[in-house]
Amino acid sequence: MIIRLVKMTFRPEEVGTFQDLFAGWRHRIIAFPGCRHLELLHDADDPRVFFTYSIWDGPHALEAYRTSAVFNVVWPVVKGLFAARAEAWTTEQEHRMTASDAR
Hints:
alpha+beta
């Protein structure tokens, strides 16, 4: 399993557009084979900044998505709304703990 984090900074006037688009696309993204989890996070200090947090079966699943028809519809539209270039990280979970684990 891998975790993919993507930071996106939008032009202020495009924030609402992105939120509406994501609401429509999220079901297609999570339904893609190999996608186990999808979250959209909104920066607490900068309303222009969002992050996607997704969990994939492995690099092969992420790459299949990145070369898919779904991605080829979503990404060009989202990219056109950016105020800055997106940043992305592919990570592996090193450790996970919840509050109940600490008891």
